[in-house]
Amino acid sequence: MQDEYLQDGRKRRQELQNLFNVGSKLGYTSGELSEALHEGRSQAFIDVLMACLPNVSTLYLSPGWLPRSTLSQSSHLQKLQSLTVFGSPFDQNPDIGYREMFVKDAGRLFFLPTVRKVSIFDIHLSCFSDLIEVNTARTSSITDLTLVPGGDYPLIEDSRTTLRECLKQPQALVSLTVFLPRYTSMVDQTLPSNIIPNDELWRILSFHKHCLEYLDIYDQDADCDRSSFLWKPHLSKLDGFERLHTLRILQQSLVGGFNGIREASFRLQETLPVSIRSLTIYANRPEGLRFEQQILEAMQNFKFQKLAFLIFQEVSGSTSISMQTYKELVRVCSDRNISLAFLEHDHLPRGGKSLLEYGEAHDPEQYISQGGR
Q: Among 79, 210, 302, 318, which residue has the least CB neighbours within 10 Å?
């Protein structure tokens, strides 16, 4: 019995020594770590836990639960592939203390060579600005990027720069999902302020045109207030995006012609790449017969041999297009074996916003294939 107690005591001492060794690597003294664990400080527990999980491949983080000491030492995360960071609705203001925590810790993972997927929700873009400024010469290995920034407060100028850099620093994006929130102007807070014009967004996207396969852009300005969209030109042609198979976008971002603003000089069938497999048109309501005619024209064009899904977001329970066009689309899509669907917003990803609101990633193509309409 005494030997068992002695053996157990040696085992416990070794475990404590191992714990203190881990703490030392994280910058804790043995006294500091003992005190932190004894007092139940969550930060210390998270730091130690992360240091003991060298094979972790996926992290979900939120403010207040960032393993700061651990994340600062990338040697602990050599197998990390996926990172999701959720902001806090109680800490949206970038001036109240959590810029430094976020930038110094979670932001470092943006540049780890093993990380391939990053999703960022409900965090003001300016929280990245210091990191981007420091790392302007660096690139990341991310191939799947989702950005759903927080909004509803005045836009800070460096947010624009930050968004540009976040999109440009990945070397070869395959999947990009972006929600552009409705910000207010620092000059007149009753007016929206553009975070990034569509023509500039296109120039950034063109860096990835030979590798981008999935593109989902949802502009809240266009969805909330028609007049606020007038200063945003449409994207340039996407036909050079040779691997793009899934496109989710607003009509006005794609070909213009919204609420009387300038239409694109090209038609829908001229901007869609031949690789397109699924096209989702978000609300607002597609405007007028001219765009409806372009939809029909594209569906009848046999250069889109891979097209399998045409999806519209429903508006107030309606099909969002005229009945005449609807009947013609049903016929054309049936003849070409294209699945036509009108879905409400809760079945669509909307630039990643639905994941934040509903807690699940929507796959409308799978939903349609399983019988949903």
A: 302
